[in-house]
Design a protein that fits this description.
The structure is a single chain. The chain has 8 helices and 13 strands. The protein is an alpha/beta fold and 253 residues long. It has 2 domains: 128 residues, Rossmann fold, CATH 3.40.50; 104 residues, Arc Repressor Mutant, subunit A (Orthogonal Bundle), CATH 1.10.10. A 5-stranded parallel sheet has the order 2-1-3-4-5, with helices on both faces. A 5-stranded antiparallel sheet has the order 6-7-8-9-10, covered by helices on one side. A 3-stranded antiparallel sheet has the order 11-13-12. α1 links the parallel β1 and β2. The longest helix has 14 residues. It is elongated. It starts with 18 loop residues before the first strand and ends with a strand. The N terminus is likely disordered. It binds calcium ion (CA). The site of calcium ion has 5 residues, from loops.
Length: 253
């Protein structure tokens, strides 16, 4: 049983190690992660079930959370994700077993930022942890990770500012004229900056039952948005594609 254990492995070379809360019940996995992530300089905290993860989350306020989807004790990784999301926008990576890909979509819908599928390589996991923690710059509140509202009620995410009341969009200080659905789509992405939105969520929220025709409609709109807001639409830096899942607004180009 590893519930509540705070395995600490501090690496060299960083003044402030990124702290990672891991919720995982398989001992062999816990050991591999503690050693592997410790070696990379992360500060590792381990919880062996969902309740322990929620307790530990409150006490250590980690920079990143790594949640196994299948946890013992009746509180699943998804439940933990949902609970954390109710109060925090800390980056969350879900870990799922092979063959459970259907649940990765659910994971993203309950607020996970990314997911990895077991078995994965340590290098891949480290890269993802670094990527999500970059979106949550240290020294600022987690709430400031993605978009924020300014005093005028505009939503600001990096180079893009959306004014929901006036239905206007400014990119790098210049107003960009968008069609209605393009505006709705961009607003939704910007409000959720840093987070993956699945195709289903985007289609449902932007078009709802109006969505007719083939599934390319979403991609066509994304393409048009990119041509208007990206510095280089061929290599989009603001609206990025998460293959097979959906799109994410990166915030800064
Ligand atoms: Ca498990």
């Amino acid at each position: 049983m590893v519930a509540g254990r705070t395995g600490v492995a501090r690496g060299e070379g960083e003044d402030h190690a990124i702290s990672v809360l891991i919720a995982e019940d398989e001992e062999s996995f816990v050991d591999a992660l503690t050693v592997g992530l410790g070696r990379e300089g992360f500060l590792v905290h381990v919880a062996g079930d969902g309740n322990a993860a929620l307790e530990l989350f409150k006490s250590v306020a980690p920079d990143v959370v790594l949640l196994d989807q299948m946890l013992p004790g009746g509180v699943s990784g998804l439940d933990v994700c949902r609970s954390i999301r109710a109060t925090s926008s800390v980056p969350i990576i879900m870990v799922t077993a092979k063959g459970e890909e259907i649940d990765t979509v659910v994971a993203l819908e309950v607020g996970a930022d990314d997911y990895v599928i077991k078995p994965f390589r340590m290098r891949e996991l480290v890269a993802r942890i670094r990527a999500v923690s970059r979106r949550s710059p240290r020294g600022t509140s987690h709430e400031e990770r993605g978009a924020e509202r300014n005093e005028a009620g505009q939503i600001v995410a990096g180079e893009v500012t959306v004014d929901p009341d006036q239905r206007r969009v400014y990119v790098r200080g210049q107003e960009v004229r968008l069609r209605r659905k393009e505006f709705d789509l961009l607003s939704l992405l910007v409000e959720n900056a840093g987070r993956v939105l699945t195709r289903d969520v985007l289609i449902d929220r932007v078009w709802g039952s109006d969505y007719i025709g083939d599934t390319k409609t979403l991609d066509v709109h994304i393409k048009r948005l990119r041509s208007q807001i990206e510095r280089n639409p061929v290599e989009p830096a603001l609206i990025t594609t998460v293959r097979g899942v959906g799109y994410r607004f990166a915030g800064t180009g």
